[in-house]
Amino acid sequence: QVQLVESGGGLVQAGGSLRLSCAASGRTISTYYMGWLRQAPGKEREFVAAISRIGTRTYYADNVKGRFTISRDNAKNTVYLQMNSLKPEDTAVYYCAAPRDSVSYIPLSAGGYDYWGQGTQVTVSS
């Protein structure tokens, strides 16, 4: 089983940037699709971005496309989320997640993920 720990969150002004990191332990992440999801207060957890096992395919929610970039470094067992042009509506707890390594598709919703980090808070001020 893989354990995930996010870092890099914080307070930033609108238009600014943050880079989130997700460090994995317990197993190599090279066998896992990886995703980032977020949850704002009073809202359901929503999909943000996902990446294939070797990073050749990426998927984004429409509301972050063109502003966020997901990447991975399997040698470092780490996944990243570069967030640019941040907006107040991006304010949320951001979670790194992975589905079981046996799945044959990249989950595009929270229900498809089995392993979760504890989350990191991102707050964007206007």
Query: What value does the average pLDDT take?
Result: 96
Uncertain residue segments: none
For the termini, the CA-CA separation is 40 Å
Bin the helical content: under 10%
Number of helices: 0
Q: What is the element string, with H for helices and E for strands?
A: EEEEEEEEEEE
Strands, total number: 11
Task: Report on the biggest sheet.
Answer: 7 strands, mixed
Rg on CA atoms, Å: 13 Å
SSE topology:
Layout: E1 3-7, E2 10-13, E3 18-25, E4 34-39, E5 46-51, E6 58-60, E7 68-73, E8 78-83, E9 92-98, E10 115-116, E11 120-125
Describe this structure in words.
The protein is mostly beta strands and 126 residues long. The protein has strands at residues 3-7, 10-13, 18-25, 34-39, 46-51, 58-60, 68-73, 78-83, 92-98, 115-116, 120-125. The relative contact order is 0.31.
Tags for this model:
mainly beta, single chain, 126 residues, seven-stranded mixed sheet, four-stranded antiparallel sheet
Outline:
With 126 residues, this protein is mainly beta. The chain has no helices and 11 strands.
